[in-house]
């Protein structure tokens, strides 16, 4: 179902859902259907035609899953003053790589279906777990034959300093897709989450870590879900002065809109190396520290890692 009319679309989605009340705006869990192991779709997958595939990558707790919620709500046409939000999945730590396809969507905002692949965060446990995660990500994309249109690195805007361990993980993260750094860079974006202004200390620190991307976006995903807690939304709408929350909403919406427009022109990246060729090596967590880049690795620098050697 690709609705032109936002109200009809929202009513249909709400009818198929049970409202969840909480501190913030009421949430309607979306009626996603499991189509394959760890792959969900909202509406029927269009058999022919392009679907834009986006993968979210980042350290643990940086806001990947929340960004998925923002993109989902944006793509369904939710506006600031709508007195509800939709929920893609529960707000909890991500354990498994999972994809969510928005076949049903508000076409004015998502002309093409979009699939978002949410991934567990790096640096959640041991280096060994991270190596396994790298392999699992590549395997997920490869085995499901998903050409990737965009890689979204998700890092808090205020992350002005990175530990050696964090730098090493960021430097290695693109390798979850493959070794063609130049091509991966051309479809890579940095999402600076928890942003409360256009000041983004993270830009310096990721540069130092050697993370390469096409462009960056500032977002504050919380702004999408906060209830203005007004006596009457209608009343506030009339007399409104823009709240900080609304400004952050606007910034976030602009970022997501620009991102989704930009990725439509991307040449998709095929992850074609099967995971068999990328057997994880055993090693201890100290390897992170031993191989952290002392300064920004140059574009041509070779890091002697496969998936197994961080
Ligand atoms: N204020 C604010 N809170 C955010 C933002 N992004 C995420 N959060 C909150 O930060 C917490 C972690 O966000 P998640 O989206 O679950 O982070 P994640 O990267 O998916 O975490 P893992 O799945 O554990 O790797 C949640 O409580 C979010 O609501 C943001 O931009 N601003
Ligand atoms: Mg998550």
Automatic annotation (TrEMBL):
This is AIG1-type G domain-containing protein. It comes from the Eukaryota. The keyword Nucleotide-binding applies. GO terms for molecular function: GTP binding. Residues 52-179 form the AIG1-type G domain. Belongs to the TRAFAC class TrmE-Era-EngA-EngB-Septin-like GTPase superfamily. AIG1/Toc34/Toc159-like paraseptin GTPase family. IAN subfamily. Keywords: Nucleotide-binding. It comes from Darwinula stevensoni.
């Amino acid at each position: 179902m690709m609705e032109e009319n936002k109200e009809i679309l929202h009513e249909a989605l709400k009818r198929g859902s049970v409202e969840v009340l909480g501190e913030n705006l009421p949430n309607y869990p979306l009626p996603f259907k499991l189509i394959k192991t760890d792959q969900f779709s909202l509406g029927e997958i269009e058999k022919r035609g392009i679907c834009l595939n986006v993968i979210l990558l980042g350290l643990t707790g940086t806001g990947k899953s929340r960004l998925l919620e923002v993109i989902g709500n944006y793509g369904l046409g939710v506006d600031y003053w709508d007195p509800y939000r939709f929920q893609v999945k529960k707000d909890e730590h991500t354990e498994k790589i999972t994809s969510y396809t928005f076949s049903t969507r508000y076409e004015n905002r998502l002309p093409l279906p979009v699939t978002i692949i949410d991934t567990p965060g790096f640096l959640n446990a041991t280096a060994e777990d991270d190596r396994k995660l790298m392999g699992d990500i590549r395997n997920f994309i490869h085995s499901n034959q998903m050409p990737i249109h965009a890689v979204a690195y998700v890092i808090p805007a205020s992350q002005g300093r990175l530990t050696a361990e964090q730098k090493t993980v960021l430097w290695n993260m693109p390798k979850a897709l493959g070794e063609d750094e130049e091509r991966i860079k051309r479809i890579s974006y940095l999402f600076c989450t928890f942003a409360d202004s256009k000041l983004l200390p993270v830009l310096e620190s990721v540069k130092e870590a050697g993370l390469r991307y096409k462009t960056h976006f500032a977002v504050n995903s919380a702004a999408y879900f906060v209830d203005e807690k007004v006596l009457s939304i209608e009343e506030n709408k009339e007399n409104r002065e823009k709240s900080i929350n609304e400004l952050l909403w606007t910034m976030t919406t602009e970022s997501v809109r620009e991102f989704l427009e930009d990725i439509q022109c991307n040449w998709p990246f095929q992850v074609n190396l099967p995971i068999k060729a990328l057997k994880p090596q055993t090693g201890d967590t100290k390897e992170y520290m031993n191989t952290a880049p002392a300064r920004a690795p140059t574009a041509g620098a070779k890091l002697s890692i496969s998936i197994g050697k961080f």
